[in-house]
């Protein structure tokens, strides 16, 4: 519920800010302190202090940092969408080349995962909080809308079951790459990006194989039908003579 | 938020970034897409059995119109970024089986099936038209136009079915009721999952 600070006659004052906007500002300010304090009330308290608010403002939030983590994920997703939207505009204006699908997916997932780098030490903790039953609806919804966004900008126009397979596959790629990244100590996370490249290549192969299997299956069915018609024609002509 | 401004794809898509009632619109497009997909499969099933009979051309013509309807909803689905129903593979088979099964009862059976399904679809489209008009007829003008046109064409199919002796099918009212119950269930499920 948002508290509106209205003056007389229902006019809203210049400094009108809803509770939601205030919480948003506090959480954004708190992110700076996460590398040091983790996703905790301490980080939120420090963030509140930088805004000139009392540390008691941390009491507005859960002690396990749920809102802070969800806020961070939501902000990252928004940044990713904005990035992809900007790049799409460049392609539409002819100022950039359209990437092939595998390269696009790699680029989008890598861009999104790179946003974790400043917080990577504390990210495993965040992942476990996101998996709390209480948070699963929100974290799942954030994940699915991010994956859907990536496919949208990749140019996916499927309106059949492929819509689901593609998103499921990309979700798998994203999650596994994220886990690899948590344990990656190579310079510049190059092991992670190589892992990502391989997973995306696997997915492309799988989809090519799937369509080849389907074509082969259809061809086989056609062949069998043709054979059946031939046999029945032969039988009926034999019966006549 | 329910009136989220998700970017809408497509040159000239009139509702680009405008706040639309996403839950309502998504439901409408998802279920209509599923319905046209199912209708396509039903006619495909009927053609598989009755394609070479005297009534074949009539069914083919109705099928062609359903193909156009499906094409339109495919476009709308992409433009509004709506998820298709997860039951599509099921409607694929169920629709074909219903079409072929009703056609195996003969030409009248196929026409009875058509009458039942098209009546359900017309009623369903009318409900949606009412909903959209209650929401905001100006904002949803394009969608309303499409649904009204399709409703009229489905009504035509219904009438064609009647003209071709649908009501003379043995156990017509039982068949019709059963099919329409199935349609109601399909609509309920496809709106939600």
From TrEMBL, chain A:
GO terms for biological process: ubiquinone biosynthetic process. Keywords: Lipid-binding, Mitochondrion, Transit peptide, Ubiquinone biosynthesis. GO terms for cellular component: mitochondrial inner membrane. Residues 136-206 form the COQ9 C-terminal domain. It is found in: Mitochondrion. Pathway: Cofactor biosynthesis; ubiquinone biosynthesis. The keyword Cell inner membrane does not apply. One of its GO terms (molecular function) is lipid binding. Residues 19-49 form the Ubiquinone biosynthesis protein COQ9 HTH domain. InterPro entries: COQ9_C, COQ9_HTH, Ubiq_biosynth_COQ9. Its main location: mitochondrion. NCBIfam families: diverge_rpsU. Belongs to the COQ9 family. Homodimer. Heterodimer; two heterodimers of COQ7:COQ9 come together on the same side of the lipid pseudo-bilayer and form a curved tetramer with a hydrophobic surface suitable for membrane interaction. These two tetramers assemble into a soluble octamer with a pseudo-bilayer of lipids captured within. Interacts with COQ7; this interaction allows ubiquinone (CoQ) isoprene intermediates presentation to COQ7 and facilitates the COQ7-mediated hydroxylase step. Membrane-associated protein that warps the membrane surface to access and bind aromatic isoprenes with high specificity, including ubiquinone (CoQ) isoprene intermediates and presents them directly to Coq7, therefore facilitating the Coq7-mediated hydroxylase step. Participates in the biosynthesis of coenzyme Q, also named ubiquinone, an essential lipid-soluble electron transporter for aerobic cellular respiration. This is Ubiquinone biosynthesis protein. It comes from Dicaeum eximium. The gene is Coq9.
Automatic annotation (TrEMBL), chain B:
It comes from the Eukaryota. GO terms for biological process: determination of adult lifespan; regulation of gene expression; regulation of reactive oxygen species metabolic process; ubiquinone biosynthetic process. GO terms for molecular function: 3-demethoxyubiquinol 3-hydroxylase activity; metal ion binding. Transmembrane segments: none annotated. Gene3D superfamilies: 1.20.1260.10. Pathway: Cofactor biosynthesis; ubiquinone biosynthesis. Keywords: Iron, Membrane, Metal-binding, Monooxygenase, Oxidoreductase, Ubiquinone biosynthesis. It holds the Pfam family COQ7. SUPFAM superfamilies: Ferritin-like. PANTHER family: 5-DEMETHOXYUBIQUINONE HYDROXYLASE, MITOCHONDRIAL, COENZYME Q10 BIOSYNTHESIS PROTEIN 7. This is COQ7 protein.
